[in-house]
Task: inverse folding
């Protein structure tokens, strides 16, 4: 589907796009576009990867971005859900 993706963890010439990294079991679950992933450089700035859910891809110039949701600590001791478009290089499969 997204065969010409930039190298950065999700695809590239040597890699397989995250959308294609599912087992072929014949179930309808494989048709769901959402995939688990790690999100590097989350908005809370703690410098750790956060587990997230990749919802879709879009082209951003010569690169790809993924729309992800993940939890981030935006106030001391208070976690909130963040939804954002993130560069492909900051996303890796979980």
Result:
């Amino acid at each position: 589907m997204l065969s010409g993706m930039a190298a950065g963890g999700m695809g590239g010439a040597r890699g397989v796009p995250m959308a294609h990294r599912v087992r072929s079991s014949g179930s309808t679950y494989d048709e769901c576009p959402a995939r688990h992933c790690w999100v590097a450089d989350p908005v809370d700035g703690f410098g750790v990867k956060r587990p997230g859910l990749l919802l879709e891809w879009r082209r951003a110039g010569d690169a790809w971005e993924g729309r992800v949701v993940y939890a981030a600590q935006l106030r001391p001791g208070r976690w909130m859900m963040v939804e954002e478009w993130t560069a492909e290089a900051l996303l890796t499969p979980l």
